[in-house]
Amino acid sequence: MSAKIAAIPMIATAGVVFVGGTAWTVLYSFTSSKLLPKEKFVGLAQYDRLWSSSKWLISIENLAIYGAFSLVFAMVIGFLLAALLDQKIRFEDTFRTVFLYPFALSFIVTGLAWQWILNPDFGVQHVVRSMGFESFTFDPLYNPDIVIYGVLIAGLWHETGLIMCLMLAGLRGIDEDIWKASRVDGIPVWKTYLFIVIPMMRGIFITALVLIASGIIKVYDLIVAQTGGGPGISSEVPAKYVYDAMFLSQNLGQGFAASTMMLLSVVIVVVPWAYLEFGGKSRRV
Amino acid sequence: MSKTVSLRDQSLVFESPDAGTPDTTLRRAGASRKQGRVVEGPCGAKPTKSLSRRNIILYGTLIVCALYYLLPLYVMLVTSLKGMPEIRLGNIFAPPMEVTFQPWVKAWSEACTGLNCEGLSRGFWNSVKILIPSVVLSIAIASVNGYALANWRFRGAELFFTILIVGAFIPYQVMIYPIVIMLREVGLYGSLTGLVLVHSVFGMPILTLLFRNYFASVPEELFKAARVDGAGFWAIYFRIMLPMSLPIFVVAIILQVTGIWNDFLFGVIYTKPDLYPMTVQLNNIVNSTQGVKEYNVNMAATILTGLVPLTVYFISGKLFVRGIAAGAVKG
After folding, report:
1. How far does B193 lie from chain A, in Å, by closest CA?
2. B244 is a domain residue
3. Of A7, A24, A122, the CB nearest to B178
4. Does residue B56 sit within a domain?
5. Domain that holds residue B5
6. Which residues of B touch A110 (CB under 8 A)?
7. Which residue in A14, A112, A278 is closest to B164 by CB distance?
8. Is residue B3 assigned to a domain?
9. Which residues in chain A are closer than 8 Å to B171, comparing Cβ atoms?
10. In terms of domains, do B175 and B306 share one?
11. Is residue B142 part of a domain?
12. Within this chain, do residues B127 and B236 fall inside the same structural domain, yes or no?
């Protein structure tokens, strides 16, 4: 009995906030809510407007570019760093601490630090130019075509340490005998990694994938701090679109529709994974 | 080419036995005894010099990577210690010629956001006022949840737990506005209390999972013995489970302190300007369009904001890794 009372906060959170809140937002995305939510249903009109808004289309494109590169690079760099650290080196703890510390910092701090380093008048571009390379240009945050890659640099700096830690845990879980066997057979180290170790770490890779993917869709603070969505609207992302629509331009319906689209994309990514992972797990419990 | 390969092989053979964990070393010793010490053991290969080509490449790469990761912290620190004239003339990577702590003082107590010029200190104290109750409340709720789920399985528990875990993947944006309405209805919108509640709600999935898994690993006999002795739900929680679970509480505290301190989105939505947490105020100071940009003050402010999670990180060390690993691998 007291167990049920004790679980009331959890039941309220799960039922009211998570299920109720999500359902409410999806429902109201079909209304013409502006400053305040109202029950005037207009079908898919908000979605029509959403998909014809250039700001939203740019947001989606940026998210796709950022997401794809961030997934690939975080995985590759994270794995390479983990493999380097797994060579029974000295000072392993020091190196791991250095690679992971950005993850402890907030996205605001990360974004502002890289905004400063990438500042064309003072940062990397200025330094290289003053070394004599007058025509050197590296101003990602001021060039609409490549601004998202400037954000990517900061994003990768922030998250690769975490992926490295996951991968390192995975590498440590590989039986020493595998390495012995492949050494006896004379298989080169890189081939052992590529064809034996990585396939064995499938679970870790999937976890890392889901982790990065669910982080990508939430990316918001980093953009706000580093570029503010600019120059112009060239570095907008969906999460920022939602915030702007709801709290700056008093256009709730657009915010609801945009956030529902975000939810939909998460469902597409997470449901197959949850089916594979938790489908087996819940049966065991 | 063949030389590198053989060098690498030797160093592997030589290095692995003494650097391996006790567990693998033991197994290895057993295996070599069985095989009559033919294949294994450091019997033939010469000890490799520490400056082998493999080591130079390995440590070289690692050091270059480490420098890259340290670069932003270094640049921030160096910039924050320079005067503005030096910044305009110089190179952001150069150490300061004249060290000044003026930017730090200014960032802490004079920097402006809009009309307010109290500096970051206000944001710092706001963050502290948000942090402490949020950490206490979220961990209290989640540990009881985890305990109830692990030891007192009641009907529907698994269902709500599953919803909770699935909810951890739902983008916050979907739930932001309904929460605004709920908080407005009870008169907490724009207050610190409201933000504390929001943090407790969104911290719940991961923390509940953490505690549930931990309590599930406590031997069940202990729980049964206490039941036989007549202890109830709360008695078992406070007198048996709590004293046993200090490590997991530390992990949860680390997770929450860094997470809540670094939050920006909830702070900006659920509080009003004079209650903004440090991250929000920092962003407003640095990205404000008015006035001359004082990069040294901005960087000092940025480091000040990052100082709390960095301190937690460097002190906690392996526990931090354990926290995120627990959160990540099982979440």
Report:
1. 16
2. yes
3. A24
4. no
5. 1-48
6. 72
7. A14
8. yes
9. 217-218, 239, 259, 262-263, 266
10. yes
11. yes
12. yes
Nearest CA in chain A to B234: A2
Residue of B268 and B119 predicted with greater confidence: B268
Mean pLDDT for all residues in chain A: 87
Which CATH number characterizes residue B154's domain? 1.10.3720.10
Contact A25/B175, CB-based, under 8 Å?
yes
pLDDT of residue B43: 53
What ipTM does this complex have?
0.87
Of B321, B240, B297, give the one whose Cα is nearest residue B117: B297
Mark which residues 309-328 of B lie under 8 Å from A by CB. 309-310, 312-314, 317, 320-321, 324-325, 328
Range in A173-187, A246-260, B118-132, B151-165 with the lowest mean pLDDT:
B151-165
Domains of chain A, start order = 69-228 (1.10.3720.10), 237-285 (no CATH)
